[in-house]
Write a sequence for this structure.
């Protein structure tokens, strides 16, 4: 087999899920309740007693940004409210064990499982690794497991690799529907009871099926999602060695002293913020409490019946909607019925039943449709244990490509099937799907937070009445309880990089929102598996502009102070501290833009 850069990381082991603690959960819920109550108290003061009436154009947008941020925070609090891990069950052997009693066939048979490996432009030799690890998956019973390479690239070399490995090769005449269309085409050509979806670079561990198939003993379980773990994320280097390499041994000793004082510091660790542990071990895992954990594609298992049923129900709804739209302005009942029937027939003749919707975020979209199917009340399972490994984006452009696809595809749900109004979803599911879409609107309030300090520097205006004792009592107590609450809610998971990129992604999320508002199609782009050895500061121009604006503002205000102009020292200290926090988050993505991929990582 061809060697790639990641072969040197084969020894790395995945994290273990944070163990459940009833005491920690109770303390979190107690503090979260206090946090929400204090938020109401804080914003009552903020809107009715703290606005600077002499600069409402400045004060109101900031108060509104804070309020929207608190709404997003409240949704996050609700998301993290409780654990509800599903107990692991023994792996089934026969179809009768995964079906309801009234649906079991007269003749029982072993379960059949299809493993899908969709690919488009990935190196066939890279896909070979995934094929071999899929072949190495074990199972305690003699079931029928078939591996299928779904090649939308129509490459002879990929076909040859599949043939050499003894797995099925599937392609099609066009690429309609992107990855969703690729999966749909494969579903029509296969017959497995359970479908496993991997990516071209997803390498399942031997126990993948044995640890997850037991969930399907519950006939209402539609799919199981396992965490995606990127095992090639840069681990960085210690501060001592980084400073020594860059600035010499004397400065390196300073780094060693700092590490002795505050602990190990890894410079360059997870440079692109690719580690998804917070998403899987905190967000997705806690959504089990609302039966709202959604499918994320790679590393998931699906009951074929559930996917087909969702497609049929959605098709029927679309037929009815099309017929109703065609006859909505007609007063004659007989004519209206005739038009409805004709419109329905025309729609059915031109439209196919689609197991996977042609949507760039086909995973979350299909999940939402299944959760909305009240006739079956499908369940989703998030299995907290890591059971596969994947490759992370190798440069900032690849990372931005991946996240724009996620952002645009998720926001597009609001336009197609808004979770706030989609019939069939429970209140908890509605809140969780809405939270997924609403979080991307943080770009707007982040912009307000980022430009507030420079407005102060250049105008001398403050967005509050004054920095008095009342101000500090409200803001410090509210922020303190918030930080403690989230420390407990995300216990055992490092969230710093996630928070930094949450701030730094404001231009990308605004671009995604604008694309959806214009009605443009979110185009599917395969996340590149190769990296770049060149700096790409052109990708972070907005972040550089905000950093320059803050630096210029600080210099400007210091100049005013030096020249004897009137100044607000306390306001300057607060604004400077705020600027430093903002710039520390923005510098993370700027650092990523200048990070050069090692030659060994250029596939």
């Amino acid at each position: 087999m061809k060697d790639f850069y990641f072969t040197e990381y084969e020894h790395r082991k995945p994290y273990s899920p944070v163990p459940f603690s009833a005491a920690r959960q109770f303390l979190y819920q107690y503090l979260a309740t206090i946090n929400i109550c204090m938020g109401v108290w804080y914003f009552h003061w903020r809107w009715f007693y703290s606005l600077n009436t002499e600069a409402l154009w400045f004060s109101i947008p900031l108060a509104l940004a804070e309020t929207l941020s608190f709404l997003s925070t409240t949704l996050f609090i609700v998301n993290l409210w409780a654990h509800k891990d599903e107990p692991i069950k023994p792996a089934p052997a026969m179809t009768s064990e995964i079906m309801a009693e009234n649906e079991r066939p007269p003749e029982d048979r072993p379960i059949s499982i299809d493993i899908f490996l969709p690919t488009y432009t990935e190196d066939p030799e890279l896909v070979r690794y995934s094929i071999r690890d899929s072949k190495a998956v074990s199972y305690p019973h003699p079931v029928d497991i078939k591996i299928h390479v779904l090649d939308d690239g129509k490459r002879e070399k990929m076909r040859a690799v599949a043939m050499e490995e003894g797995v099925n090769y599937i392609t099609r005449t066009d690429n309609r529907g992107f990855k969703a269309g690729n999966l749909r085409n494969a579903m029509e050509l296969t017959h497995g009871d359970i479908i496993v979806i991997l990516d071209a670079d997803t390498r399942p561990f031997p126990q993948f099926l044995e640890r997850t198939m037991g969930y399907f003993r519950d006939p209402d379980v539609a799919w199981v999602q396992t965490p995606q773990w990127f095992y090639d994320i840069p681990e960085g280097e210690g501060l001592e060695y980084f400073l020594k390499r860059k600035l010499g041994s004397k400065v390196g000793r300073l780094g060693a002293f700092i590490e002795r004082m505050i602990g190990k510091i890894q410079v360059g660790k997870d440079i692109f913020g690719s580690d998804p542990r917070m998403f899987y071990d905190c967000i997705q895992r806690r959504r089990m409490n609302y039966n709202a954990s959604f499918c994320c594609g790679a590393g998931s298992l699906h009951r074929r019946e559930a996917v087909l049923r969702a497609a049929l129900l959605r098709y029927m709804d679309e037929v009815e909607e099309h017929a109703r739209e065609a006859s909505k302005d007609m007063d004659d009942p007989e004519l209206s019925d005739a038009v409805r029937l004709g419109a329905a027939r025309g729609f059915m003749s031109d439209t196919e039943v689609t197991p996977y919707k042609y949507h760039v975020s086909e995973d979350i979209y299909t999940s939402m449709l299944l959760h909305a199917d009240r006739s079956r009340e499908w369940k989703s399972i998030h299995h907290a244990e890591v059971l596969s490994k994947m490759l992370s984006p190798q440069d900032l452009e690849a990372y931005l490509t991946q996240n724009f696809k996620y952002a645009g595809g998720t926001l597009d749900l609001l336009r197609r099937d808004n979770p706030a109004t989609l019939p069939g979803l429970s209140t908890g599911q509605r809140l969780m799907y809405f939270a997924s879409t609403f979080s991307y609107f943080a770009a707007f309030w982040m912009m307000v937070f980022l430009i507030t300090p420079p407005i102060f520097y250049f105008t001398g205006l403050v967005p509050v009445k004054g920095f008095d004792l009342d101000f500090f009592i409200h803001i410090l107590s509210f922020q303190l309880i918030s930080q403690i609450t989230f420390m407990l809610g995300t216990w055992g998971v490092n969230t710093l990089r996630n928070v930094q990129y949450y701030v730094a992604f404001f231009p990308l999320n605004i671009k995604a929102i604008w694309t959806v508002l214009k009605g443009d199609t979110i185009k599917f782009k395969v996340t590149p598996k190769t990296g770049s050895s060149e700096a790409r500061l052109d990708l972070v121009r907005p972040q550089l502009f905000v950093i320059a604006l803050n630096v210029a503002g600080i210099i400007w205000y210091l100049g005013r102070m030096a020249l004897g102009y009137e100044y607000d020292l306390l306001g300057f200290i607060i604004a400077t501290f705020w600027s430093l926090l903002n710039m520390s988050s923005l510098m993370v993505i700027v650092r990523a833009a200048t990070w050069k991929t090692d030659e060994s990582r250029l596939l």
Q: What stands out?
A: The first helix runs from residue 22 to 48. The mean pLDDT is 88.
